[in-house]
Amino acid sequence: MTFNFTKPNAWFDRTITKTTSISVPYLVLFALLADVIVTAIFSFILFPENTSGPEFETSVPDFLLIVIAAPIIETAIVQLWIIRTVLKYSCNNRLLAVLVSAILFGLAHHYSIAYVLKATLAGTIYAMLWFSIAGKQKNPFWYVVVTHSVYNSIGFIINAYA
To answer: Counting Cβ atoms within 10 Å, is residue 72 exposed (0-12), middle (13-18) or buried (19+)?
Structure first.
């Protein structure tokens, strides 16, 4: 027995098509704000005692890794490669591509169960941003990288002053 993705995929395609009328800066800002809100909900409401994530120093090498390298590498693997691969083998099923991409993004952040769940939602946000910008006939890669990088820099700054 297989799950029929026809109706959810049609809904998702309509939703993404609607987002193409929103300007790119607003899409990026909305994605960043959504990721911050998801993090706040997980950190302060759902799992206040279990917010363990990556541990790092506030040093230049860690900054380069967390704010520059990680967003580029993760976007290249989880959005660019995974999304393209799923689309290729699923008859362009964008909903399935978002789900696979988000789950793999979450699993890549295996610091705790709470963090995997939070990162899966973040992966969903980044994958949807990917498709929203791609729907505008633009290359979404650097937009997703910058959004992820700004989000990571917020965490880096908070860690530096906490």
So the answer is: middle
Asked if the model's pLDDT at residue 1 lies above 50, the reply is no
Please provide the DSSP assignment of 86-115 as one string. HHHHTTS-HHHHHHHHHHHHHHH-TT-HHH
- The residue with tokens 């910008």 is 133
Residue position matching structure tokens 């393209």:
84
From residue 75, how far is each of 18, 29, 84, 106, 148 by CA, in Å? 23, 17, 12, 13, 9
Mean pLDDT of the region 77-93:
94
Spatial distance between the Cα atoms of 138 and 57, rounded to a whole number of angstroms: 36
- CA angle 125/149/69 to nearest 5° reads 115
Dihedral sign (CA 82, 115, 28, 153): negative
- pLDDT one-digit tens code per residue, 27-62: 999 999 999 999 999 988 998 887 667 777 788 999
Domain ranges of the chain: 23-47+65-161
Mean pLDDT of the chain: 91
More confident: 115 or 48: 115
